[in-house]
Structures are given as structure tokens and as C-alpha cells.
Fold this sequence. Notes:
Keywords: Metal-binding, Oxidoreductase, Zinc. With about 375 residues, the protein is of the alpha/beta class. The protein has two domains: about 1-165 and about 330-370, Medium-chain alcohol dehydrogenases, catalytic domain (Quinone Oxidoreductase, Chain A, domain 1, Alpha-Beta Complex), CATH 3.90.180.10; about 170-305, Rossmann fold (3-Layer(aba) Sandwich), CATH 3.40.50. The chain contains twelve helices and 18 strands. The chain has helices at about 40-50, 95-100, 155-160, 165-175, 190-205, 215-225, 240-245, 260-270, 295-300, 315-325, 345-350, 365-380, and strands at about 1-10, 15-25, 30-40, 60, 65-70, 85, 115-120, 125, 135-140, 145, 185-190, 210-215, 230, 250-255, 270-280, 300-305, 335-340, 360. Strands 3, 5, 6, 9, 10, 17 and 18 form a seven-stranded mixed beta sheet that branches. It has a six-stranded parallel beta sheet with strand order 13-12-11-14-15-16, with helices on both faces. A five-stranded mixed beta sheet has the order 7-2-1-4-8, with no helix packed on it. Helix 4 (about 165-175) packs across helix 5 and helix 5 runs parallel beside helix 6. The longest helix is centred in the C-terminal third of the chain and has 17 residues, at about 365-380. The radius of gyration is 21 Å and the shape is globular.
Amino acid sequence: MHEVQAVVVRAKNEPATVETILVPDPGPGEALVDVLTCGVCQTDHHYQVGAVGDDFPYLLGHEATGVVSAVGEGVTEVAPGDRVILNWRAVCGQCRACRKGQPWYCFNTHNATQKMTLLDGTELSPALGIGAFAEKTLVAAGQCTKIEGDLEEHQYAAVGLLGCGVMAGIGAVLNTGAVQRGESVAVIGCGGVGTAAVAGAQLAGATTIIAVDLDEDKLATARSFGATHTVNSREQDPVEAIQELTGGFGADVVIDAVGIAATFRQAFEARDLAGRLVLVGVPAPGTTWEIPLDQVFGRGGAIKSAWYGDTLPSRDLPMLVDQYRLGRLDLDGFVSERIGLGDVEPAFEKMKAGKVLRSVVEITDSRAASAAAARTEAAR
């Protein structure tokens, strides 16, 4: 059993605080990981406010990289010393989606069987089955995607973002939207996921990439990631603007990275005939939309939702790390700031205010600080 520092939310709407938790040694099929970095994602805040469930206390954090320190019986895919990206889609290989050859939809993804706990034995619910705002975490071995080749230490903060938000946006374009070279793409909402969709559209070879947002700073950031045109929807009707920029027809693919009824309707209407609409923004529970069914039929095409960008981690994460190494994907640009474990709560406020793409916790610094504090205490 390992005593480590971690970020916990004990009850709905309570602040995220650093506490000492207990992490077991790995059992069969499990891996113990020394966490290096972990991004602060909107999903972690959803856990804090009870929007995901009420299985408090939660151990937050999931967009992470780390080093495998130990593995349990039967684990062959990773070994101690491997540097990995953690993911929450550890495919089971047996469910109806996997058996149909669609493992990116796996309906029974694996998590660690053993529970991490508070010092008093209270079981923790790890965010997305990971819980990586911690010096160590316990996961199913399939949640570890090995990083082949070397990266510089500062680069792990960037590639860790492929564990959730950045991958969701890129995957919505490459996988769900299946954008082809020469197509037009419009992205509505340019937070972290939307900006990643812009980057994905550039990577896919789209020649017209239209970023839509209410905030000029976010639009400027989207342009730096590959947007060829920007639309401030406070000043212009986004549907009309997208149509004007695409010869009057609408975009081949429109990504709704917001997930409210108004943006969904805009995305539906801004498509070309037979165009694809991809919903990657997570709607609030109970959100509804109303579109005449004859328009659904008349416009043709497809309306899809992207679950984690329809990502298969074993296939997609190594490919995107390679694109990063080759300079074709600017993952570094998503890292707005590097912080410690004790800075997660202020990072939520910056995220909600739209001041950052991603704050990234660097656990190595926190671990070193903990060790220094322990040495000081022992010296006394």
C-alpha cells in the first residue's frame, strides 16, 4: 500500500483539496503508475459539481502521462519503466461492439478492480476510472498506452492531453466526421475541444476551416491552430457566414463543440447538402432540440455524436504522438500553464472564465516538494 498526495472532492460543490490517499499494489490485470502530468479538464469540474454522479468522494484527474512502476499478474502490454499515456477506453474485446469490430465503441471498458481509498478506508471513485491528480494511481493495464521513443521531459504535459479533451476534438474530425483532403470544416465553439477540432481539420487536409466563437481571443487562438477564417457570432449570423465562406452551400462537416440547442441548430443549418454534423460538446442533462423532420430528410448527410472522438487509443494515440514529433500537430500550444497539485481549484476558475486552453499539473514537481517536506520533518 502506498501513501501519496492526491486531489479529492469529498462532496458535491466542495472545493478540490490535496489529501493523503492509499493506493494498493497492482492485482491481476492492473498497473501502478507514477503520474508525471495531468491536464485540468472540464470533465473533472463536472465531477466536482455532481454532474456526472454522486459517488463521492471523487479522486479527480484523467488527462495524464506517467511511468509504470509495477504490474499485476497476467499483464503483458506494458512493463515497469514504460512511459505511458493514460486513457479511459481500455477495450474489453468481448462486448457486442468489440465483437462487431468496433472497439472504439466498447461498452464495457476496463478499470482497476481494487479501490484507492482515503486514510480512513473510504473508497474513492476515480474520475473516468483513472484518478490522476495524484502522485501514483492504479489503473487497468489496458488504460496504459505506451509512448514509443523518447520525448523531452517538458513534452509529456502536451502528449498527456491526448488522454481526453484534445483527442476528443481531433477524433471528432478524423474519426467521427471522417474529414477528407480538400473538404470544408466549420467548428462552433473554440474552447479546448473546439480548438483541437480545428487542429484536426488542418491535419486531415481540409482547405477551408472556419472557427466560430463569441470571443475574439479564442478566435485568434483558433487561427493559430489552422483556422483559415473566423466568425464572431456576436457580430455575424454564423449560419450565413459559414454559407458565404463556402460558396453559398455550407460546410462539408460542421463540429458542434458547445453542445447547447442553439449551436446544434446552427450546426445543422450550416451544413452543405449531404454534409455531416458532429456533436462533440457535452450537453447538459435534459437538453432538447427541435428540427422539422422534413429538413432532416431533405438535407441528407449524417448527424453523429462523438464519444471521445470515436478513439481507439492503441491505434490513435501513437499516431498522433508521431505527428507531434514531426511538427504537424502543435500539442505544446494547448498547454497554457504548468501548475502543482494544490493549484487545481484556481485552475477550474481560469477554465470556466475561458482564460486557458489547458492548465497542466506537473506531478514530478509536487512529488519532489513532498519528499523535501518529509526530509525537513525528519531532520527536526
